[in-house]
Structure formats: structure tokens, C-alpha cells
Queue: 2 jobs
Job 1
Amino acid sequence: MSEIINLQVGRCGNNVGNSFWENILNEHQIDNCGTQLENSSNHPKERQNVFFQEHANQKFMPRAVLIDFEPGIIDSIKGSLLGRIFDQNCFVIGQTSAGDNWAKGYHSEGPQWIEYALDAIRKQIEACDCLQGFQIMNSLGGGTGSGFGSLLMSRIREEFSDCMLHTYSVFPSSQVSDVVVEPYNATLSLRHLIENVHQVLTFDNEALYRICTKTSSDSTYQKINHIVANAIANITCTLRFPGALNSSMRKMSLNLVSFPRLHFTMSSLSPISLRPTTRDLRVPELYQQLFDAKNFLTDADPRHGRVLSAVTIYRGKVSEKEVLEQSLNVGNKNSSYFVEWIPNNLKTSLCQVPSKDFNTSAVSIFNSTAIQEMFRRLGEKFGCLFKRRAFLHWYTENGLDEQELIEAEASLKDLISEYQFYQDATAEDDEQNF
Ligand SMILES: Nc1nc2c(ncn2[C@@H]2O[C@H](COP(=O)(O)OP(=O)(O)OP(=O)(O)O)[C@@H](O)[C@H]2O)c(=O)[nH]1
Ligand SMILES: [Mg+2]
């Protein structure tokens, strides 16, 4: 059995993590106390141990570590219906937040917490047979998820270098948050995400805000997280239920990451609805929505870039014949969005277990050069602040050297150029250019 440990860091990471566990407990038919429901005898259980540890008393416990520098969110999770399901050793809780300051999370406060976090992780590892990797949930705009998250990533890569590391990371939007230094925090994090992580599954509050205000009158984090958690449940379903494609973190990244640094994927979801739909969508409708820019959870228009590789996962009571037809048909109207120099770069899979809210649903994970649009926007905002060294003293007072910001900006610019390079590449290009 190859287990995965979920590390949720900071407020956003814990909120998203909480919704994720609610979703997958329901999908695995386990109640809030960790008991497998009696009517689940036909439910596939072969891979249940990937995300859940089974105890002698037949109770299932999430493989998770919950970390935050301030107690509010984790205390509310502990006090909720879900609170009892977690191992009591899996909480790492401080008393003051990192105050939206990456440097506090990474430099001044983080080091005193890192050993506690690694101890909690080691305890989770003791309960694994053969750990395949970690997935981190965090936001990039604050101080803990982004700063401490970055520190955690580099320590995990050092100590557990054989393991896979994925993150589910929420990019900031000024529509949703009014913290002015978010471009610093996100750019500083990005450098660590480039260097230490195998795959970053991006979510963008800008796109999520737009989706929520379209589908309902407001866009609370609860609603945004509902959509994010649906997407993560769909993305991870191939890791949790039987099937051939993407059956491990390594296989998922092998299909999606064609160049080591270009490992930032974006996802589209169908249906996107905050309530269960009245009508089940069929494969052609699901497929059409997955390629619609409105259904992307990252604010980048897929039509402006080219897809290096992609994976589509259909779920639930969809027709296998239609899935097969659809996968044979891909070379049709969307083919111009795919680079022609990677053959068969759209993989399709079917998971028969439906998602929590829908009888039929689908997710696509794209490694598309269009993601540079989000990075360009971040770079512009970062540049505005950094040109005048605005707010810099808050960071240098907390142990950050200005050079780190210079290097982080250079790293972001390099990433954008690399995406542009592969966007412009054609099958006929001289090999020496690569
Ligand atoms: N999608 C989503 N975004 C969130 C949520 N909570 C906060 N954010 C976003 O995350 C960023 C702020 O990060 P937080 O996660 O609150 O910060 P933190 O990691 O707890 O760090 P500090 O509080 O600064 O110590 C902003 O961009 C917010 O808009 C959430 O529940 N869902
Ligand atoms: Mg916080």
C-alpha cells in the first residue's frame, strides 16, 4: 500500500483541507467518527488506506497533519463534527499568526515550529507501509501557508527525498483579499514551489471569485472552498479508487510534467455548481464544459496558450462507450490548443464511484502554457511594489535579505520565459534550440 499524507498549512490550507476530508469521507462512505457505513459492502476499498489509516477497532483516521500559527481555524475544526476523526497528535498550533508576512513564516517564526511539524509528520509516517508522498494545501498570499509552507517544502525535500511532493495552492486575488503585500508573499513562495515540488495544482481566487459570483449572489470562502474541494476530490479519485490512469502521485506527474520546472497545472471542473444538479450531464456536455474558459479554476484563458499535456477524469454513472468515443475524438476542434510535438497528450480515465454531489462529473488537469497569464499578472503587481521597495522593511525586520526578493523576481521571469518558449515551439524547430 502506498500512502499519501495531507499537510494543511495556515487558514486557507486548513479550510480547504477540511472541505476535502468532508468530501472524501462521504465518497469512501466513512462517517465522522471514522466508522465505515454498513451499506458500503459493494464499495471499492482496495485503496482506502492511501488516505486513511485503519485501526484495530476498524476505525479509519485521515493521514493528515494540520498546521497553523494561530489557533482559530484548527480549533473550530476540532470542535466540529469532523473534529473527532483526527489523530490527536496531528495538530501543530501556535498562538499568533504570521501576520500576512512570508518572512515571519519562513525566517523569524517558522524555524521554531518546523521540528514540531516534522515530528507530527514522522508520527504519521510510522503508520504507513510504504509512503508515496505528501500533498500540501496552502494559500500563497498569507504568512503561514506561504512562508512556513515554503520552509516545510524544503525540509521535506531534504528529509524525504524519495517521496513525491504535490501542492494544492491558492493564488491570491485583490477581489477576495485586501492584503497589499500578497504579491511579495506569492512571488517568494513561487521560487520554492519551482525548486522543491514535483507538481503544483493551482487554484486562483480570482477565477473562483468570478465563478462564485456568477453562480450565486456572493462568494464566501465557504463557497469557493466547496468548488476547490470538489476539484481536489475529483483529481485524487484515481489515487483513491481502482483504475489504471494516474494511480499514483508519480504516475500523475509523469503524465503531466514534461519539463521539470514547468510543473504548474490548472484544472477545469464540470459541472460547476454549488448545489447538486437536477439533471445528470452526459459525456459530450461534460467534455464541452471542461474546455470552456469559464470552467477553469485558474484565471488564465486556455485559448491563449498551448497544452503540453492534459488528463481528463470522468466520474460516476457516465457511459463508458461515450467516454471512449470522446477520447478518440479529441483530435477534433480542441486539437489546435495542444502542442503537436507531444503525441497523445490528452489522457482519459473513468472512475465509476461518483463524486459527493453529482451522479456524473469530470475534471481536467492541464499543463498549459496559458498559465503564464496568471504569473505575468503576479509579476506586474510585484514589480510595482518592489520598484519603490514599498513595505520592504516589514520583511527585512523579520530576517529576509533583499536579495531573496531579487532572486524570486528573476525566478518568476524565467518561468514565464520558459512557458513562452514552449508555447512558440513547433515540431519543425531545430532540435538544437531545445
Ligand atoms: N480560497 C480560499 N482562500 C483563502 C481562504 N482563507 C484565506 N484565503 C486567501 O489566502 C490568503 C491569505 O492567506 P491565509 O491562508 O489566510 O493566511 P495564513 O496562511 O493563515 O497566514 P497568516 O494568517 O498570515 O499567518 C488571501 O489571499 C486570502 O484571500 C479560504 O478559506 N479559501
Ligand atoms: Mg492565518
Job 2
Amino acid sequence: MPFVTRKLTLVLAASLTATAWQAPILAQTPAASLFDAHVAAGLPKSFALPRETDDERGPGVDQVVIKERLDTDVVYPDGSHAMTYTGTAGSHEAVFTRLGETLRISVLGQSVEARTTIAQYRSAPAPAPTPVPDDAIVPSSTPSARTPATLAKNSVAELRFWIFLHDDAGESNYAKFHNWYIAWWVRDMERSVKPGIPIKVVIKDRLPGVTDFDYRQGRADESLYAFRNAADRYLYTQGIVSSALTKVMLFVGDRPDNWKGAYGLALARDTVAMASGTGPRHGVAHEFGHTLNALHEHAETRFPCVTNMSAYVPGLFSCQIHSGQNDVQIREYVQQAVARDAN
Ligand SMILES: [Zn+2]
């Protein structure tokens, strides 16, 4: 078991010269160019698509069917918006991401070799220690004790996830990050979990006071509360009042000692979480899941994969879905939060 913490309860980026104004000419890869040309002609669309040279599945050509573009807006630190599409690659369900110059494909229900920085995770971590603590920390106050969101009149309820990439996380390849952690999660949220309100994901980096947060200090719960405050202060400067529908996550590199062996942490049914790049592919979905009242007890092992709320089981890859009951848990949590905000 990977996600962990202890009994606390732990359930557990003037004068610009003319040259500077010239935007760099980004050379799209052949796969990305081919993909764009087909998609521009309308969906659904079926065609043969050569894999990117660094496709996580290795070299090859896929017969793909691109069905639809997802609605969820995902914004990266450079201001680029990831375009995420659903469809099939060969005989498998797949999620396609267009971001920057490249195209990424995440094939669902398939184990893939983990190759690059997104982590040491891909280098087969050692089995989790025993006993394993839990990663879901129950907030010291009651869930409703936190000041509910004061949504401005006429504002539209939206489920917003803010992911702050810590300065030490080494996650500068946004397309890879999106493909590994976000694209399939967004698909599952839109198509199965269906929280009933729009979802937006904003990813930020290099923000003094936030992405340089010292998460190694203090106990795990103290660290979560302190980061929640740091993130809320940043959001406030952006004109955003924190609410139960505004979730924040610090994405870090190596796990600190105060996580007691966990690969991530979250305040259950609250707004704050942390995840390590050394954890499983479903680490981001898992920890945000805790903030949405998804539970370990409803996780499923669907050999050879595990659903999002499962602990990290070496040898079993991520199914890249929540499970039926956790879909319900999340849906109900969001409906209640929307109702509270409306009052
Ligand atoms: Zn957990």
C-alpha cells in the first residue's frame, strides 16, 4: 500500500526588441500535424496514425478512431490549453492529447513501461513498507466547518482543480504530465463520475510562496494545512475565493519523511492534497478523490489493474477509472457542495 500516514488518523514565468517579439516557430511532429488535419475535418474520424518517437508504448502505427473532444479546460503554466479527445487506438479505448507540438496517447486498461522523468515511479519502486499508514487525513474540524464558498451572484458553479508543480518536481514537459496523470482522469470525470458541473484544471509552476513551499517541515497534517493557506492566499490574489469546489494540490518530487511512507496526502472532504511523482499513475486522481469523499473501501482490484482509490500495489497498473460507488460518492459530494454554496 502506497498511500499513507498514521494514526492521526490518518485514515487514511520593456523593451523588447523586434527579435524578442518573434514567437518561436514550433515544429509540430508529423503525428500531431496529421492528427490536427483529420480532426479539423470533423469528428468522428478514423485513420492510421504513426506513434510519436517517444510514445510510452514504443514504436508503431495505430489505427485510431477519434470520437469527441472533452469539454474540460486544462491550462498549463505557459498558458497553453490541452485539447483532450476520446476514441480508440487499435482495439483499446484511448485518450488523445494535443498540447504544444506533440500528440500523446493514453491507452486505457493497458500496462505501459514508464520511461521518463514523470518518474521514478516508472522505475519500479520498492514494495511498500508494512504496516502501511493511510494517506487520507481527517480534518481536525468538521467538514462543514470550513467557510463555505461565497460565490458571487451569477457566478457559475464549477469544480476547479489547481495543481502547483513544486520547484523540485522536475515536471517541465507538460504534454507528458497531461498524458500520464490528467487526460484519462478528465475523461473519467466527464464520462463516468459526472459531477454535474463543469470541470477546470489549472496547472501552475514557479510561484514564489507556493511552489517553493517547504513540505518537509512539521507533521503531515500541519504541512497540509500550511499549504492550504499558502495556496488560498495565492488564489485570493487572483480574485478567487476558496470554496469546497476549489481543490488545490502540491505536486512534488521525492516523498518527504513526514509522509511516513505514503505516496500522497490529502485532507479528506476538504480542499488540499499533495502527491509525489514517485507514486502511481493514479496518484493525482487518488488524492483529489479523497478531497471529494471517494474512499479506499470502494476501490477495486480489477486484475491486473486497480481503480483510482486503491493503494499503490506494485505489479498492478492503474485502471485509470474510479469505481462505481466512488463515482457516486464524488457526485453526491459535489451536489451537496453546490447546494451549500447556493444558500
Ligand atoms: Zn488514499
